[in-house]
Amino acid sequence: MTISCDTLPQGTLNVEQAQAHILASIPVLQANEHVTLWQAQGRILAETVSAPLDVPPHRNSAMDGYALRHADLTTTTPLNVIGTAFAGRPFAGAVQPGECVRIMTGAVVPDGTDSVVMQENVQRDGDTIRLTATLQAGENVRHPGEDMRTGDAVLQAGHKLNAADLGLLASLGIGEVSVLRRPRVAFCSTGDELKGIGETLQPGDIYDSNRYTLYGLLQKLDVEIIDLGVVKDTPEAVEHAFQQAMQLADILITSGGVSVGEADYVTATLLRLGQVNFWKIAMKPGKPLAFGTLGQGFFFGLPGNPVSVMATFLLFLRPAILRMRGESVPVVPEYPAICDTPLKKAAGRKDYQRGICQRDASGQWRVSSTGGQGSHILRSMSQANCFIVLPLEWSNVEAGTTVSIIPFEGLL
Ligand SMILES: Nc1nc2c(c(=O)[nH]1)N[C@H]1C(S)=C(S)[C@@H](COP(=O)(O)OP(=O)(O)OC[C@H]3O[C@@H](n4cnc5c(N)ncnc54)[C@H](O)[C@@H]3O)O[C@H]1N2
Ligand code: MOO
């Protein structure tokens, strides 16, 4: 799994260019593992599954009622009930003309019979029955293989398993499947100012929040998560974390240290150990982003500001991880909405402002700002349920303008 980033443009990219370069570089992980059905939800099938048997395996009744020979219904003579067929306990004998068998839903339809009348359409008198409604030949009989036939390719390689698929596999007696291995994603925060929860803040310190945000975002994507903790701003600490990631992970995500500050050992270490591109992306928040290869894996250096972490993760890392998982990468839908608050914006960067959207009584989407939009104001993200996407060339937005929104539903 190696890429060459030689051809990637340096300097400032727009969001779409950066997304395209990243997706073109990330391969589907070519590694399989076997999992039981209990662990298979949401996993991507590595091999096509063919049915080893017919489902249903036998002719069975769709109703509680009586199994009979349709030809017997040409007269009004009552039919003799000669036994009972339960699901899992078939009727053992053969059914002769003029006879029928009491039958339950799912029970094997006895030899000699071809139709089932539901009990609501029968008048029973001792051990005989008489039909009170018409019945089609073959009615209420389910046939072997009606759902799946032996040899049918029922699930294709590359399919993402859902709850219905788990039941389908179980109905075929298949308890284990070969799936693509989940990407291993290591992440860390960098910065001397960062303290762990429970530690006392000294002047200049803040609590590390990005690791918790990243953990939550990664959990949504069903990857193997490797937490490398908080890494100090020293060459040794950064190198140690990167060496660990090279041993353990397919992707390393760092936050912080990708701008132009002086305690920036992330970039220096990466240049030594990997192949890296540093970009400025014409977006706000999330201007600086480092992307490249590290050993056999990939590296994403996200900016340290907490809202920038979320925006760059959702726009660049999420599609990359979906691709590596073997999933199709969906286009994230944008919808028009009337903006009820004026928005401040400088031209030159595409803005992902945080908003609250809802439909009004007429079904029209409306959106308003969550307030302060600095990339350090995580509360604006926590209160939001959508991004308000403002094109690069736009400047300030007046209330009443139609804007584009990206609802967070399914993303966070
Ligand atoms: N002279 C310039 N300065 C900056 C520029 C620039 O173009 N020229 N870009 C600004 C932009 S935009 C961003 S975004 C940041 C990105 O900086 P870094 O990626 O180097 O991040 P840091 O400086 O390490 O941190 C930025 C900010 O975020 C806080 N932080 C960092 N890690 C965490 C964490 N794990 N949990 C919570 N908060 C964190 C950190 O304390 C800083 O306040 O650069 C601008 N500067
Ligand atoms: O790119 Mo930065 O994220 O605006 O703060």
UniProtKB/TrEMBL annotation:
<keyword id="KW-0808">Transferase</keyword>
<comment type="similarity">
    <text>Belongs to the MoeA family.</text>
</comment>
<comment type="pathway">
    <text>Cofactor biosynthesis; molybdopterin biosynthesis.</text>
</comment>
<protein>
    <recommendedName>
        <fullName>Molybdopterin molybdenumtransferase</fullName>
        <ecNumber>2.10.1.1</ecNumber>
    </recommendedName>
</protein>
<feature type="domain" description="MoaB/Mog">
    <location>
        <begin position="186"/>
        <end position="323"/>
    </location>
</feature>
<keyword id="KW-0500">Molybdenum</keyword>
<keyword id="KW-0460">Magnesium</keyword>
<dbReference type="InterPro" id="IPR036688">
    <property type="entry name" value="MoeA_C_domain_IV_sf"/>
</dbReference>
<dbReference type="InterPro" id="IPR008284">
    <property type="entry name" value="MoCF_biosynth_CS"/>
</dbReference>
<dbReference type="InterPro" id="IPR036425">
    <property type="entry name" value="MoaB/Mog-like_dom_sf"/>
</dbReference>
<comment type="function">
    <text>Catalyzes the insertion of molybdate into adenylated molybdopterin with the concomitant release of AMP.</text>
</comment>
<keyword id="KW-0479">Metal-binding</keyword>
<dbReference type="InterPro" id="IPR005111">
    <property type="entry name" value="MoeA_C_domain_IV"/>
</dbReference>
<dbReference type="InterPro" id="IPR038987">
    <property type="entry name" value="MoeA-like"/>
</dbReference>
<keyword id="KW-0501">Molybdenum cofactor biosynthesis</keyword>
<dbReference type="Pfam" id="PF00994">
    <property type="entry name" value="MoCF_biosynth"/>
</dbReference>
<dbReference type="Pfam" id="PF03453">
    <property type="entry name" value="MoeA_N"/>
</dbReference>
<dbReference type="InterPro" id="IPR005110">
    <property type="entry name" value="MoeA_linker/N"/>
</dbReference>
<dbReference type="Pfam" id="PF03454">
    <property type="entry name" value="MoeA_C"/>
</dbReference>
<dbReference type="InterPro" id="IPR001453">
    <property type="entry name" value="MoaB/Mog_dom"/>
</dbReference>
<dbReference type="InterPro" id="IPR036135">
    <property type="entry name" value="MoeA_linker/N_sf"/>
</dbReference>
